[in-house]
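Hi team,

Below is the intake form for 1-acyl-sn-glycerol-3-phosphate acyltransferase from Fulvivirga lutea. Please confirm the fields before the structure is written into the shared record.

FORM ID: S-0412
PROTEIN: 1-acyl-sn-glycerol-3-phosphate acyltransferase
ORGANISM: Fulvivirga lutea
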Amino acid sequence: MKIIRGLHTVYALIIFMILFILLLPLFLIPIFRQSQFHLTGIFNRIWANLFFRLTFFPIDLEYRFNYKEKRQYVFCPNHFSYLDIPTMGLNKINAVFVGKNDMENIPLFGYMYRKLHITVDRTSLKSRYNTILRSFEAIDEGKSLMIFPEGGILTNNVPEMVKFKDGAFRTAIEKQIPIVPVTIPYNWIILPDGQWLPKVRTIKVIYHEPIETKGLTLENLAELKQQTFDTIDQELKKALNES
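The structure came back. Fields below:
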């Protein structure tokens, strides 16, 4: 079984690299023509769909609200696996990722990621501040955001989340746009952190009802953060009991 999973891993890495090389010229369009930023989400969706389908992972996206493509949202998913990033590329609503700058050092991919998304060095106060400003600017430009509120894969007791950071919720309140809690219930089973032999299982994503922020102030930040946490946590517990 391990040999088969090992071969599957090698195959998946090859597919990932081939798709990246083929799609890189397309990603250059929104890099050099920022007015076409919406293409980033479209190309992410193409890449993610092709990757998961060619590597034999079924996909199940569940939207529990009637989303509006032209409305802006801040998406907040749980984060337990390296599969979570390509998984969120499946989102039907175009969004810019806000995340750690670890991937900037990957040749070519790092350049693309840095140019199209918002990266942060969490060890630097200046970088964290600039990330907030860039997030505000992205909202002003009409973009939605994808932010992992845990700040990375940090939990030692999957599927329990760690305390959420403030950035996503501060941005949503300041710009008065809704938070969308997102539950990714099974990626930690498919590809646990620190492992490289995935199990084939459905890539499931649940987009919960948006939490409106109109009329909220920074005094409501803790409450908004807790409501988002509880929504995702309840779904994770439900999935754990069913798995």
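SUMMARY LINE: The mean pLDDT is 94.

Thanks, M.
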